[in-house]
């Protein structure tokens, strides 16, 4: 086997990018400390017009750490963050890490059942929760180890005048207030009140080490069962350093638009840890809304936009329609799903900048490959290995055997950003991480002569829709309990810029009525995230199965596509 250090430099390697980077033996928290010290007055966050400097972020994080310590949080304890993008999310993330505790990120729109599984699995004892998600977390609480729930009023991160406007007795104010706030029981404390009353954590309190666990990021991996990817301080620090080397970003110069959610691995690194390392100004939005993005762009023009392709397409379309100026964006980084050529061409036409594709997994913190940040980028290719990252292409059935150059095989990755394994899942860790540290990705690729890696197919059966992963078995398991449904198979079908959409192929009980798409979606809404809901329903007389009784999803998908055509 080729060792990581023996791999030759790809022929297409970009000028000015080091093949390897030095990752210092320090915790990720040193990144915030350095940025706050060297760029104290630079605006760190612009949240819907309210600005916070890097020194203020560091001060609030120190106060937040004191609050969490008073709640009993210590080194190694897990703290759940159930928050949309906001200034508080940034502060709470750094506060948890300062104590040597572990951040556990959660989608704040998850159902109580989805939250219960993740909270119980991580063993989180404290949760910092957006007010609208508080009822769902409290509903799940008895199934978890949670001892404290702290509520976050999203409107408290707004400018004073904007907060005041929310109290006006007009429909627009009521709608905005309803979108930001939610009912909270009297015995649930509020984050902002606690932080305001706290003194900063004393500097003498020991912090984490580079080898400590920093983050549990839940992912389906290759099986669909949500499990926590264990990311160490050095994993996250390495990926931020790799990103800076690849982009050649100069500290204190970039304006990064944080439209990707921090609770997603892509958004967490590009819009939080990497952005902190380069002392960027983060324009933070609680959710993606082209109108809000364009309004913010007038106020604070962006230079760098990490996004998934549907976001780029919608934003470019909105700019074309309104005449908004997006030419300040030099780069957009596209990931999580394939970038359609039409979307890339539209974005580059509107911005006169470049859109750069990358590839990664939660298990690689998450970026592992990227296209050059130049006109040499290659639309449709995953790109080249990041600095200090090596790849191998192996036989899909035997990961110890490399395939011949140019042949297709499973992509393996090695580098300092590769995770430490899955939380409390040694068997799945052993399957994913080979004994020599190489990570199995489950993706079939081929490497071209100049070193570019091109995706051929997915070994996984997951569906990627709008950048989110949907695992068929989870949707199927829920639908099997629906009255009138005898059997079900869930597959993906092409859906333009969304990547794929979820299709449910069902066999109905004899005489069943009322099982239509609306009913199926209503049934699924009680347990599944919105992006996982079926967009089409196909009724079949039986599902094709193998000799051992396994549903042949490939055949189901072919049938679905034929019926759609």
UniProtKB/TrEMBL annotation:
Residues 475-550 form the AMP-binding enzyme C-terminal domain. InterPro entries: AMP-bd_C (IPR025110), AMP-bd_C_sf (IPR045851), AMP-binding_CS (IPR020845), AMP-dep_synth/lig_dom (IPR000873), ANL_N_sf (IPR042099), ATP-dep_AMP-bd_enzyme (IPR050237). This is Long-chain fatty acid--CoA ligase. It is an enzyme of class 6 (ligase). Residues 1-25 are annotated as: Disordered. Its EC number is 6.2.1.3. Keywords: Ligase. Transmembrane segments: none annotated. GO terms for molecular function: long-chain fatty acid-CoA ligase activity. Residues 32-423 form the AMP-dependent synthetase/ligase domain.
